[in-house]
Specification:
0% strand; transmembrane; membrane; transmembrane helix; mainly alpha
Amino acid sequence: MGASALVNLLLDDWETPAKIRFVSLLYATGGALAFPVGLFLARLVSLGRHWEVAFAAAFICLLTITIAFTGGLFALQYRSYYVQWHAPALTIAWSIQFVFTMATALYQFIVLGIRLYFPLGFIALFAASIWFARQQR
């Protein structure tokens, strides 16, 4: 996932090299954290079923968990930037600001960040799903 983000950002001639490295590392970390969780969930869903079900389970679970973990990391980084303008921690105003900042970050990730998974991330997802389905036979 990090390689997919890196290639996309380099081809787009995006920002500075430091920012490209940071975003690539964010995607790589999200993918690395999501992979074992996605495989675990895919095993639960496809237990004792045909390889087609195993492939679909791996594809959906890995896709969903990778986007969720990477989006969550993006939202935490986004919130860390805006924390300086938020109310003191654990107040009602802080809670509202926290929820809406995280929701805004997740929305921005879905709109702007998912495109960085294509095409390399999608190819890796497809390959990992085939590998998982073959292991389940």
